[in-house]
Amino acid sequence: MTPHDAIRLAADVIAANGFHRHYLWDTAQAQAGTPPEDCRVDIAGALAIALHGHPAMAHTPEVHAAEQLLVARIDAPSLAAWYHRRPTLRQVLDLLDETAAQPSA
Prior knowledge:
The chain contains six helices and no strands. It has helices at 3-17, 27-31, 43-52, 61-71, 79-83, 89-101.
């Protein structure tokens, strides 16, 4: 799977589950009984679900490559720093969709 494919799938995960900017997945939602893979997620959590089936922190080359493509398109040093600007769900989905649509280098 290419990084662009993973980003496209991550967009689908966030569209289905919702966006959560505070952690990989919404732990309060999980504590209420929702499986973590069905909880609201941040981009890293969505990438982990897309690539590994669970939103746990995944320090894999595939996740890193996808994150680097996304960070190259934002005006922040990291996705976490970008979250402090409180992007809307639409901005998150636009970032994912636009990055996934870029041709591979």
